[in-house]
Amino acid sequence: MFMSKNEPVSSPEALLQQIDTDRPLPPLEQWNPDFCGDIPMRITRDGRWFYQGGEIRRPAMVKMFSRILWKEGDRYFLKTPVEKVGIEVEDVPFQVISVERTGASPECLSFTTSTGEQVVAGKVHPIRVELDPLTGEPSPYLLIRYGMEGRLQRNVFYQLAEWAESHRINGRQVWTVSSEGVQFNLGEG
Predict the structure, then answer these.
(1) Distances (CA, A) of 152 to 26, 35, 96, 112, 160
(2) CATH number for the domain including 105?
(3) Domain CATH code at residue 82
(4) Are residues 111 and 176 in the same domain?
(5) Statement to judge: residues 33 and 73 lie in one domain
(6) Structural domain of residue 131, as residue ranges?
(7) Which of 20, 133, 164, 182 has fewest C-beta within 10 Å?
C-alpha cells in the first residue's frame, strides 16, 4: 500500500499488526520521515475511509489509520517513523458520535469519535460552529488533535443545543455551552 522511494512496504494488514490500537497514540510529532508521495486513500465528508476506490470496512483498520493521521497546513498524511504519504480528506477526518456531561464544577463535555477516541472540550479542544452562508445550516466541529477536527454528528449537536443556555451579548441572543470553564457559542437565536 505505502510506497517508499524504492520499494513497496507493508500491506494494510501487516501495518495493522504492527500498531497496537489500544496503547496511547504514537509520537507522530517526533517522527520526521521523508514524503513518499500521495496514495489513493480518502476520507469522505461522512467519515468513511476509502482505498483505491473501495471502502475500508474493518473498524480496526480505520482505527489504525486514524492513529497515524497527521496534518500539515491544509494537507493530510499517514505518517510512520520511516515514511509519510498524502491522502485526501473531503472535510475533516473525524466524526464525533456521542457526548456526555461529566464532572460537577466545572462541568466537562466529553466527546467520543467513531474511532473510539475520547476528547473533553475546553481550551485545548475547542468547539466551533460554521454556518453555511446560503442555507444558514450549522456545521459544528471539535478540535481532536494535531490541528485535526471532528465534525459533530447531528444528534450530538442537538444534544448540545438541548443543554445550551441563552445569553444576551451586544443586543443579540446567543446560545452557549460550557466545558472545563470555557464557554462555546453554538449560534444565535
Answers:
(1) 25, 31, 5, 10, 10
(2) 2.30.270.10
(3) 3.10.540.10
(4) yes
(5) yes
(6) 94-188
(7) 133
The answer to whether residues 18 and 102 belong to one domain is no
What tens-digit pLDDT sequence spans the chain (189 residues)?
454 444 444 445 545 555 555 668 899 999 999 999 999 999 999 999 999 999 999 999 999 999 999 999 999 999 999 999 999 999 999 999 999 998 777 899 999 999 999 999 999 999 999 988 898 899 999 999 999 999 999 999 999 999 999 988 788 899 999 999 999 999 887
Q: What is the pTM of this model?
A: 0.86
H/E element, 141: strand 138-145
Q: Do 137 and 164 belong together in one domain? A: yes
What order of strands is seen across the sheet that includes strand 54-55?
Answer: 54-55, 49-51, 35-43, 84-89, 75-79, 69-72
Rounded Cα distance, 86 and 74, in Å: 11
List, in sequence order, every residue forming a beta bridge with 113; answer none if it has no partner: 96
